[in-house]
Structure formats: C-alpha cells, structure tokens
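hey m, so remember when u said the tokens were messed up on ur end? i reran from scratch. heres the input so u can diff it against urs
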Amino acid sequence: MNKNILIIIMCSMVIFASGCTLPGGGSVSAPWKSDDTGNNGLVVKDFYASPVEVHSGSETALKLTVKNVGGNNATNVKAKLYSPQTGTMSFEWKTSCFTERQCKKNIIDMCDEQRDRCKEICDDDRDCENECKSVYKDCKARAKDCKRIVSECKSNVKHVSNKMRYAKPDLNIEGEQASVSWRIQAPILEKYVKEDYTAKARVYYNYDTKAHFEIVAIPEEDVAAIEEKGGSVDYYSPVVTSSDSPIRISVDASQPVKISDVGDTFLITFKIENVGSFSPCNYSVSDVKCVKNKMNFIDQFKVTLPGNMEFVNGSCSNLIGGTSIHLLKGEYQIPCEVRINSEVTGETKYKISAFARYGYFENIETRLSARG
C-alpha cells in the first residue's frame, strides 16, 4: 500500500468535507482576467461564478485564481469577497458550508471507508495492516481541524498563501499559481423574477522591488585631457535594473561624474512609481482593507551606498535605514546630494542598490444571477 497516495486521497476528502468545493456542472461566467504582460506582481488569472445563473435558494461558487508573474515572492496573500449587489442594494446570499458536526462525520465516514479498502488490499499482510492503522489514525485526527475549516469556509476573507514563488523566465519556470473559492446560496426570489448581480473581490499581498545601478566617476583632469585631444565625453543616465514589480524604482543622474577633489558632491534623484494595475497599501495587514492614511504608501524605501560614498549634510540620510514614502499621484521623487570620500583615479564604478517594501491590492468583479 502506498501510504503517501492514501494520505493525499484523504486530505482531498477533508477539503470536500468543509463544503467549500466548487459544484460540478452548469455554465460559468466569462472569467475576469487581469493583464499579466504589464508591470505587476500578482495578477488575477480569473474570477468567475460556476454556475453563473442559479434558481432561487440554490448554490453557486465563486472561484478566484491568482498567479505571481513578478520578480519577487509574494507573501501574506489574501482575498476578500464583498457582498454582491444589484443596483445599489446588497443581496441576501448566504455562505454555504457544512456544520462542524457534518464536517467531522464526513471525515470519519471517509476514513472508515478508506480503512476497509486498505484492509482488502493488504490481504492479511501484517506490515501493510499496521501501515493502514497508522494512516487511519492520522486521518481521524484531521477531524480536529473542522472548527477551523468551517470557520474559514464561512469567512469572506480567504487565506490564499503564505508565500507564492516568483517567475524565473530565464529558466522557463512560471510563477506560482493558487486558487480560493466561496460557496454561496442564492436569495429567495418571487416566481419568474430574475436578478443580476455584480460580485466584487479584493486581492491583497506583500511585495518587494529591488533595483541596482552603477555610478561612473572620472577625474576632472582626465576629462580635460580628452577634450584637449579633440575628444568629448558623453554624459548619460545610469541604467537601472529593477525587478518586475508593480512599484518601479528608477534613477536620474548625469554621468560620468567629474571629480576634481576628494569630497566633491553630485546629485542623484530616485524616482519611485506605481506602474501596476491598482494601488500600494500598508504592509502586512491582518485584513484586506487598507487604512486610509496608508493608501498609496510605500512601507519602506531603502538605499545602500558603497563604503566610500555618503549622503551629504543629512540629505537623504534617512534612506540608509529605510523610510516610508507617500506616492502622490502615483509617484515620488527624492533628490539626494552624494559625496565620494576617496580619491578617484581613472574611470571608477560605484554600485548602488535600492529596495522598496509595500503591500499591494487589486479589485476585481464578475457577474452572476438568480431566478425565482
């Protein structure tokens, strides 16, 4: 007997026992999808009702699937279903879940059935029977989870994942995908009455953006020597490598930087921009609603300079330890005066990195209907 296979079968039945699985058959609504080709972290692959139309008092399910298409892991991924509405009035749909007692009975019945089937396969083999007993014991122990299972089933807020792995296109590895569902019961309507509803949901997750770039410095006398020979120095902005994320970090600075003496300064402007589909929010919230005074906030923006470089006279010094910033109209710019504290000989490159940590959310909707 393959113990692992048996455990997988039993675990899947535990999910069934909660009453939160999708009902089979019936038509489904056209899935709501977000664009996974833009600058995003998580995207909603689909959000739909199955079946999309039900009779008064019958059940349907709303299924939501998200995928990490960005360049970092998504953590604390949650989804919340808001009361579907018709016009401006909330409907009286009810969450459909088994009771805790029904959940336990379903699990025990399923375990008993698997135990009997296991004994038949073992055919009096003692080792096999002992393995069956162990699996049966583990299976029954899962009935203790029924309180949590039923509570989660009834909740509008679903825990999607602690961590969803990021995509690695260079290795042809797609980002992790996960799904949740809500099983709900249609309201009682009068005969021949049909009502159309809009179901809305919000997906919330924590995400990071990491950026790296180089600043090139050159002694002023080297520039003068080039120009004396009839040459010229081309000035350009640094090339920033920023991870695929809904928040983008870019930099504006003219380089190569001409340095005449130790301690010379120059200007770097950091730009933090929301390029995703919706909005950043407060980091690591317990629910999926955003605190008003934290909407469009980056929880932490941090810059790491090389040891022989520093921010001048307190300019941007708070970026070393990290600070929160408010993206007014979707972006924020931070001009920083920087000093090089060592002698520059020849063309010299200085590596600088920046990091942003934030929560992010996306709102979605789909259609469903009930008929009396």
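this time it looks ok to me. Residues 7 and 76 are 27 Å apart (CA to CA). if urs says something different then somethings off w ur setup not the seq
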